[in-house]
Amino acid sequence: MDTSHLAEHAGAAGSFFASIFVVATLSMRTMIPLRVFAILTNIILIATAVPTHNYATLILHAVLLPVNTYRLHQMLQLVRNVKKSVNSDLSMDWLRPFTTERKCTAGEVLFYKDEKADSMFYIVSGRFRLVESGIELPVGALVGEFGMLSPSNTRTQTLECVETGMVLSVTYDQVEQLYVQNPAFGFYLLRLFSARLFENIATLEQRLAHHATPQVAEPKPA
Ligand SMILES: Nc1ncnc2c1ncn2[C@@H]1O[C@@H]2COP(=O)(O)O[C@H]2[C@H]1O
C-alpha cells in the first residue's frame, strides 16, 4: 500500500496545527502559558516530521522540547516557592538562580542613603544594619526594594555590614521580569514593601507623639 499520500496529508495537517500553536505561543503574555504552548508545538511538529521524514524539523524540536519542559518546570517551582514564602515567610532560596553572590566584610557599606539604586539584596549570612533606623536585618531578609518602587529610584537608608557575611544581589531588571512573569512574586514584593512602609510610618508617629507630649513641669519645692 502506498503510504506517501497519508504522510503528505499528515504533514500538511501537522503544519496547519503547528502554525496555529506558533501564533498562540507568540501571543502569550506570561511565561507559563507560553511554555505550555511551545511544548505542544514541539510535540505536533515532532509527530508530523516523522512520517514526512523531515529530519531537520525533527531534530530542532527534539532539542527544543526538553528545553521548554525544563523552563516550564523551573517557572512552576518558582511560583510554588513564592506562594510558600507569601503564606509563611519562609526562606527565599528560590531567588538564588537569578542572583549574583557578593561577599561583604565588617564595616563595608553596601549602599548609601539617597544613592541611585539598581538592585536589591538577599542576606545569606553575616549581620547587616540599616544605619538611619538602626534596624538589624536577619539572615533570609530581602533588602533594597524601596529603591525600585519609589519614584526617584533612590535609597531611603544606608546599609552597612556589621559582621562579615554574604548577600545575593539581584538587579531590578531581573526583578521586573520576575514580577511580570509571576504575579505571586509581585504580590510578595508589594506585601513586603507595604509592611515596611507601615512599620516606618508607625515609628515616625511614635516619635512625633513623643515630641508633641507636653512636658509636665516638676512642682517647685515650697
Ligand atoms: N522597617 C523596615 N524594616 C526592614 N527593612 C526596611 C525597613 N524600611 C526600609 N527597609 C529597607 O531598607 C532599604 C534601604 O534601601 P532601599 O530604600 O532601596 O530599600 C529599603 C528597604 O528594603
UniProtKB/TrEMBL annotation:
**Source organism superkingdom:** Bacteria
Transmembrane feature ranges: 6-25, 32-49
Give UniProt keywords alphabetically: Membrane, Transmembrane, Transmembrane helix
Residue ranges the record marks as coiled coil: none
- The Cyclic nucleotide-binding domain is annotated at 106-178
Q: Write the signal peptide boundaries.
A: none
Q: Name it.
A: Cyclic nucleotide-binding protein
The record lists the organism as Bradyrhizobium macuxiense
